[in-house]
Design a protein that fits this description.
The protein is an alpha+beta fold and about 375 residues long. The chain folds into three domains: about 110 residues, Acyl-CoA dehydrogenase/oxidase, N-terminal domain (Butyryl-Coa Dehydrogenase, subunit A, domain 1, Orthogonal Bundle); about 110 residues, Butyryl-CoA Dehydrogenase, subunit A, domain 2 (Beta Barrel); about 140 residues, Butyryl-CoA Dehydrogenase, subunit A, domain 3 (Up-down Bundle). It is about 50% helix and about 15% strand. The strands form three sheets. Strands 1-4-5-8 form a four-stranded mixed beta sheet, with helices on one face. The mean pLDDT is about 95. Bound molecules: flavin-adenine dinucleotide (FAD). Flavin-adenine dinucleotide (FAD) binds next to strand 1, strand 3, helix 11 and helix 12.
């Protein structure tokens, strides 16, 4: 479906990204996924495109402008590669750049932002804890002020990109119980008292490094506090909006890829004397997929325009996150069905996407939490 908001500038940008991905990523997705890692220089190559610089000043290595349609296009194209794990890790910097840009002091910004945006250093966001991820307000990791330092104790888990990252934005409790006692901190990986271990066996995102982080009397400078003390919860929630919006766009890309693979396969595969695509049941599956893809796309475009106009439509972003996850779950499942036994074999995009739909319904705020947030935002 044509995007009525599209412009020449956005088209040129989208084509630049997709050309790069087709040459540098598409041919290697299976290989890197099976290896459980990707070459480190990919971070820099992807970052050179400028795709993580939206909304960030040029003096820090950013693009100096923002555009939600371009953000969307990047995520859609990344989703289409079916390299979910790779872009989870390369993109983990993206979910900590917002708070870093808005809340860190100038010294930290000058040190970390150019290194993160050029891909020379990795960055991760640490909110989830072994005790739970949905109920952010109950986080247990603590930060205690001691003279000119904060002392962190506790742990974080499921941290994407956490084995490679040099810089972290970490949520920790600085005050009373509940959402009013949480603050955000900038933590460097070489700080004494910080250690990490790898979470290796995952259902999907094989090429992504996922970590558990440990803070054992980890001392960081007092001015590594980001923003106001005890005001971190709101910053975490604001940051989630961008992550969820871009995950919606990534799911659209995954859905498009499933559709493209199915069209191609059903035009080639013959059963009962004709091509699969000539069977009405298969044609209906394609029609259903296409309608869902258009709905996801149109929803994202509408929200992109609202965000470009300066609004932050939290309810709609939450709806996008869970709606797109339900669409991709059904699209990936039908795509597997169209491929039959061939879909069950490793080494094809449909099989990988099928394994990676669940994380899209859990990470960055689960489907259930998104629905809760939606009705709350609707004032119900
Ligand atoms: C591969 C991967 C990468 C991740 N990357 C990161 C990262 O980089 N940084 C980070 O901080 N976190 C990350 N996460 C963590 C992710 O955000 C959490 O897994 C998610 O928020 C859910 O938290 P939980 O797993 O602790 O589930 P829980 O909070 O224990 O919830 C379990 C289930 O119960 C449901 N549930 C919880 N409360 C309610 C309720 N009130 N009503 C109905 N249902 C409810 C949830 O929706 C979920 O289905 C990642 C997770 C995965 C799997």
């Amino acid at each position: 479906m044509r995007n009525p908001f599209d412009t020449e500038e956005r088209k040129t940008f989208r084509e630049m990204v997709s050309k790069f991905l087709e040459a540098e990523i598409w041919p290697y997705v299976d290989e890197w996924d099976e290896a459980g890692e990707y070459p480190h220089e990919i971070n820099e190559k992807v970052c050179e495109l400028g795709v993580f610089g939206f909304g960030i000043d040029e003096k820090y290595g950013g693009l100096g402008f923002d555009d939600q349609f371009m953000r969307k296009d990047v995520s859609v194209e990344m989703g289409r590669t079916s390299a979910g794990g790779l872009f989870a890790s390369v993109g983990s910097r993206n979910i900590m750049l917002g708070p870093l840009t808005e809340l860190a002091n100038e010294k930290i910004k000058l040190k970390a932002l150019p290194a993160l945006m050029s891909g020379k250093k990795g960055g991760s966001l640490g909110i989830t804890e072994p005790g739970g991820g949905s109920d952010v307000a109950r986080m247990k990791t603590t930060a205690r002020k001691d003279g000119n330092e904060w002392v962190l104790n506790g742990s974080k888990t499921f941290i994407t990109g956490g084995m490679q990252a040099s810089y972290f934005v970490i949520g920790a409790r600085t005050g009373k119980e509940g959402l009013g006692g949480i603050s955000l901190f900038f933590v460097e990986a070489d700080t004494p008292g910080f250690t990490r271990s790898s979470i290796d066996k995952k259902m999907g995102w094989w090429s992504s490094d996922t970590a558990t982080l440990y803070f054992d009397n980890c001392r960081i400078p007092a001015d590594n506090l980001m923003g106001e003390e005890n005001k971190g919860f709101l910053a975490i929630m604001n940051n989630f909006n961008y992550e969820r919006y871009m995950m919606g766009a990534q799911m659209l890309g995954m859905a498009k890829r499933c559709f493209e693979e199915c069209v191609q396969y059903s035009q080639e595969r013959q059963t009962f004397g004709k091509n699969l695509i000539e069977h009405q049941v298969i044609r209906h599956k394609l029609a259903d997929m296409s309608a869902k893809i258009d709905a996801m796309d149109a929803y994202l475009n509408q929200v992109a325009q609202l965000m470009n106009d300066g609004e932050m439509p939290v309810a709609e972003i939450s709806k996008i996150k869970f709606y797109c996850s339900e669409c991709i779950e059904s699209i990936a499942s039908e795509a597997m069905q169209i491929f039959g036994g061939a879909g069950y074999l490793r080494g094809n995009a449909v099989e990988r996407i099928y394994r990676e739909v669940k994380v899209m319904a859990i990470g960055g705020g689960s489907k259930e939490i998104m629905k809760d947030l939606t009705v709350k935002q609707l004032g119900l």
